[in-house]
Amino acid sequence: MTSVRLPDGSLKEFDSVVSVKDVAKSIGSGLAKAAIWGEIDKQPVELDFEIPSGEPVDLKIITKKSPEALETMRHSCAHVMARAVMRIKPGVQLAFGPSTDGGFYYDIESPEPLTEEDFPAIEKEMAKIIALDEPFERVVRPRDEAIKVCKDLKQEFKVEHIETGLADDETLSFYQQGEFVDLCRGPHVPSPKRIGAFKLLSIAGAYWKGDQSRQQLQRLYATAFFTQADLDAHMEMLEESKKRDHRVLGKRLGLFHIDEMVGQGLILWTPKGSFIRQKLQDFISEHLVRQGYDQVFTPHIGKLDLYKTSGHFPYYQESQYPALVDRDYLSKLAEEGCSCSQLSNKMKDGEIEGYLLKPMNCPHHIKIFDSEQRSYRDLPIRLSEFGTVYRWEQSGEIGGLTRVRGFTQDDAHLFVTQEQLGEELIGCIELVKVVFAAMGMEDYSVRVGLRDPDSSKYVGDPKNWDLAEQACREAAQTLGKDFDEDPGEAAFYGPKIDFVAKDCLGRKWQLGTVQVDYNLPIRFGLEYVGADNQTHRPIMIHRAPFGSMERFIGLLIEHFGGCFPLWLNPEQARILTVSDKSEEYGRSVEKQMLAAGLRVKADYRSEKLGAKIRDGQLDMIPYMLIVGPRDAENGTVSLRDRSKGDLGAMSVEEAIAKFQKEVQDKA
RNA sequence: GCUGCUGUAGCUCAGUGGUAGAGCGCGUCCUUGGUAAGGACGAGGUCAUGGGUUCAAAUCCCAUCAGCAGCUCCA
């Protein structure tokens, strides 16, 4: 008798000898068809593996749809890739080789660095290895022996990993395939033949153990799928995604420009992009009024003293543009033979006053709060500003609109009492929710950053921290979607709630943020008079629903794939004349539309209609208004929707009403 | 910042030591065409910048700047 226990806990018994496939068949023909291998007591086996009789075994049937199946297969493929590389380049040291969302990689150190030109040879060697069909054999060794094995293999990274990362493990597992032995937790596919189609993608640098101070390895990125068709589809999907890239669309649609002569990471907003940005600002401003915010304006620079008080200088000096120093004072110092480092020290010591391009808006807002005596009756005070800040980001980090050196935050600072904190946080979350919902951007994740219980770097009373963390949790719950709690992710000055979205290449970017701050009110000695006639310290909330206009618009471009909805699109409709004969009528329609407050342009070129439509489509204009002799006669326009195509003729008034309603609904 | 790749016309790119090319776009003309590319002609380039090698450099070497991918970082 053979008995198996399935993952749901149910027991199945068979009188005769059965294979994994037989079990699958007994559950359903669909499953039998989909099955690719089985796992008995967590060890992968082929479908024709005969299950031993006697004691029940745990059996899991793996199908292509099992989330772990692809992962396992890719990891096996990583082993094959590493083996192939070692055959081609002797003396290669292996580090880590996990699977990722879209494929897998292996970090290696080669005496002779690999280049993409080596890819075909590696792929060929991999195919050879797979054709040999040698199984991945699991070997378990005690610590000492495991270390010796790695030493004998001259795999120093593995030795280090066993000694540090796996210090608590009594025994360690290896997987052997032919001459190739690798320290590995597993599991692997039962046979290399399960590896379907694979492709090496790119090569990049990566630090050993992710530590910048340690040596840099070469990371070989690759991917694998069960079938060639899946791989082809994946590659095509990547190509398609690239077309949504905001850098590509930004150029094609003329939304923004970055100029070498202006500087890295400094965005020039062209008229179209500026229009979208302004619309978004107006949209937020409208909601700020509804939520009782006050708008302020503050300058782009502030004295060093301000940032010394806030702690931003010299502590974050590395990520700021250098300070601006008074011209006369500077020449005086030069005459005295003052060196750069002496200048820098004098600034730190406060001997020289200078100005800093603001890296944050909070100090300025704090000074507005502190410019008057405040009563508890005034609180909460909510100061908002589309404030432009400048940060010296590392050059290798800068790109497109998502990481820049000058950006405008849709910033606000709330000064609240401890009692008001919870409600105000909920208000902030509400705003983020409204904003994201209006854009149809529902695909974002929420992270609540809490303090690390083992660290003492945090400012403020632990009791207040508990209250604030609980308030953040409760505020996050009002979103009605799952969120992660990340201990250790809080800023040193308070817990926070972050909103994270992915770009067209799957990279994650923090957009909105809501942060509680116990630190700055202390540093600036902020106070208000309470009902008890005593002075109290307010709590600050920093919040920005978009995060920055630049990054948000970058992701918004990709979210819409360039097809901005009518209310946001700089050009809402384009009038296309069928021939020159209709230009006069076209101009009258254009006038009516403009008078109705619609943003229309017209194409009066002596081109064929088909060409004008094509250009309109490529420019992603929401509506095209086609006017020809027929329309001129009937006082109509023939409407064309960029995605639905021809909508037929309607009167100019009807078209205007339709557009106005769509704008109103932000559809 | 680190590693690697890239930089040629407004855009996308070809050109690998010997007279700078294509498509699209742009301009002029012809064409007057009803739902995704009509035709002809033409203008347009210090081949990122600065050095070097060579009889000769877009091409080879070095540096700088910028872009891309990844890593690291992001108050």
What keywords describe this structure?
single chain, five-stranded mixed β-sheet, RNA-binding, alpha+beta, 4 domains
Structure description:
This protein has 667 residues and is of the alpha+beta class. It folds into four domains: 2-63, Ubiquitin-like (UB roll); 68-240, Threonyl-trna Synthetase, Chain A, domain 2 (Threonyl-tRNA Synthetase, Chain A, domain 2, 2-Layer Sandwich), CATH 3.30.980; 272-300 and 358-560, 2-Layer Sandwich (BirA Bifunctional Protein, domain 2); 573-665, Anticodon-binding domain (Rossmann fold). Helix content is 36%, strand content 26%. It has 21 helices and 32 strands. It has an eight-stranded mixed beta sheet with strand order 15-19-20-27-24-23-21-22, with helices on both faces. The protein has a five-stranded mixed beta sheet with strand order 2-1-5-3-4. A hairpin with a 5-residue loop joins strand 25 (528-529) and strand 26 (535-536). The longest helix has 22 residues, at 67-88. The termini are far apart. The structure holds one RNA strand of 75 nucleotides.
